[in-house]
Please model this.
Amino acid sequence: MIFVSVVLSAFAAVTLWWTMHAWRTPETLAATRFAPPDGEQHLTFSLLLPARHEQAVLEHTVARLLESTHEAFEIIIIVGHDDRETAEVADRVAGTAPGRILVVTDHNEVKNKPRALNTALPYARGEVVGVFDAEDQVHPELLEHVDHAFRATGADVVQGGVQLINFHSSWYSLHNCLEYFFWFRSRLHLHAKKGFIPLGGNTVFVRTDVLRRANGWDGTCLAEDCDLGVRLSSRGSKVVVAYDSTIVTREETPDSLRGLLKQRTRWNQGFLQVLRKGEWRRLPALRQRLLARYTLTGPFLQAFSGVVIPIGVAIALWARLPVLVALLTFLPVLPMAATLMFQVVGLRDFGKEYDLKIKWHHYARLVVGAFPYAVVLATAALRAVWREYTGRRNWELTAHVGAHLTAPAIEGSAA
Amino acid sequence: MTAVELAKPISVVPDLTDGVREGKRKPNADLVIALGLTVLIVTLLAWNITGFPTASDDEGTYLAQAWATQHGRGLAHYTYWYDHPPLGWIQLAGLSWLPAVLAPELIAVAAGRIAMLPVQAIGLLLVYLVSRRIGLPRWAASLALTAYGLSPLYLTMGRQIYLDAFAVVWILGALALALSPRKHLWHFAAAGAATATAILSKETIAVVLPAVLVAMWQNTARSSTRPWAFGAFASGLVLVGCFYPLYAVLRGELFPGPGHVSLIGAWEFQLGSRTSSGSVFSSGSGASSLLHSWLYYDPVILIAGAAACLAGLALRRVRPIALAGAILMAVALRPGGYLPAMYVVQVLPFFAIALAGVIAWAVTTLRPGRVWWRWAVLGTMISLSVLVVAPRWYVGDRRALSVDDNAPYVQAADYLRGQLPGREGATVVVDDVLWLDCVNAGYPPEKVIWFYKIDLDSAVAKRLPDGWRDVDYVVSTPAMRQDPNSLPTVRTLLTRSTVIASFGPAGGQIEIRRVDKETS
Model:
């Protein structure tokens, strides 16, 4: 029991330390922002937009992309051969901007995102390939910033920020939004600095030649984004992360708890697959390999500790343990409670950066929902392990209804 | 791979050096000055530390509780009743074993005092560091350290085993961290944890918390990470601090109830029903005579420091320190409260730093430059203050270095160790100072009894079914004779016993008395 407490608290403390990376000092916080663009445009972009049963949100997303201030980009929409509704929408919007939009049909029998992306890769003419999801709300100035970031840093990969916005939709969406906030605002920068980075699923830009040399995405992996990041990291590609709340890509949380569970299961299983593939073993430094191992197993440890710690505390309170042992059981609560405290501060920051009104009941919901959310994460982790070892590796898609698009109307003040 | 570099982030580090960090790079002036002065003052503290001042009952109490912690007897060798949070003597337990091993011939309190020297050394270094971090120049930081360390009041109280010394070190550490030039998030979390540790070492230091918050507020001004800094501080403070109530909860001793002690019950006693020591303004009250005893040792630092704290409130950089001093003053001056004898230990470092801060401000404002009359004003001020301060401190410090007040205790301890007739199986009632000496001399701990526990601790009374008749010897000391009316059994013991040995001058004598059971 004492051993478990000590291990759990060490784990929680390390995770907390890394999660808070960006806020360590005012200087680190300043260094996480996009450098302001110089107004010049040198690169050409191919923006890949896989869409599957997402006819409801696709048109809006493309329209937003077309508003981009950058001159040199093309949009490649990838639809499945069996998805007539989405294909119809895709063809219609392609007609509005001929020459800029290309619709590619994915004829793979088993459909998933990496296969769709691989289908489109040969058609890409730009120097840089960017990936977006069909429900993304992309800022018009993003491409200019990315163009500048590539040129200013000589990077091979630029990862932009992604943020879930509809924190008010449900109790879990609040936690989900904050997870994204902490991940993109802070943790990912640490990974970029240390030279091991699991990339995000969208708003990720890769030089086309680098991507082709790496043979594109792994069509069998459930976390193709993470896998690509690990493979590019292992080959020594330079990855840059830049976050700016004004040009971040906005997304929505899964529309149901079931959806969240499926999405999280997929990611966790993907992480497991990446871990088993062992590509990360080719990282040059031991520290990087340790970070890789830690990051890829992280979701499982986190899920485990999120549930075990409160149970341990309950045992300490109700069972008659020696006082010293009982006190030690509370040790992992320290980093856990500190994490919650920082989430409260983070929620405030989140509201300020995105100009959203955070009310007292949101804070209350954050604190009360912490344990149930940990249970959801733990369930997803267990499910992922179960699916992986029983060989069920199909792609469970998350449905999108466009809650983040209506968010402004509901909140009134949102941008 | 790197994160995107900004053109160049604006430097937010103020132009004061960080004494500790700089030292790692090259042997720097700050480190040399601070260490040199600290070594000097610690030497003065150590000189005659066993002889002066007289061993006090409280020192014996804390030391005995540290002994109980070392020997796995819980947090005290009597029922721990949440009188103070235990972290102070837990830390003492970590230190006091070493001198006890190295110098077993010393009486317990003298050995325990040696264990306090490293604590005082850290405190002195932190006074310098905090002074530097509020922006004082080197000479002013040295002045703060010297004024603190050479004050006869410090040379007296700083030698004694007080929980306040631990609290002072931790709260100064918290201030140094809150003023961290790097403004690192984890420095602020550590500042919170250090504050909690200070409070758990001696709870009265909690009143200084606003000063730490002000320091942090000032340090994070115009910083993008201020809310995070306060979140980190709160985490550290609450999460470390909550272990104490948690301990009470786990033992089922949080709320008052029949048949057990409780944390909240102890708080009610400390805050509510503890006998007031009166107002410092009414002559003859306990608080007033305490203040006069402090002033007897050193009026300079108390009066000048108090004035500096009030003036320092107007100076931005000195404000956190001045606020700490001002709050401590206000608490001491409040009417009707209880003023502990060692309260001044917490006050002194803040008075010293505020004094140096105000003097530094005055000198900077005067800007001597090449104007002769400004030099003259400055020179006059300096020589006047040296003339006033030096003779007083010389007398006080010489007393601390030469007087031997503890000879009677040493003789009594020797007697108890070797000459007490029929000591086997004897029940002895002693004061807190001699308790540990008796135990070290081989008396069974349950047969040696702190005098006031006979009347106040029901668990002890149960061990003595025949009351005072079960006691064989009582060692009468000034502490025991101080307030006999509140302790009836002790009074009976003192009247129904005969002196068999006596040490020290009349009035302050220590008497070994045999209890006269036949005459009853």
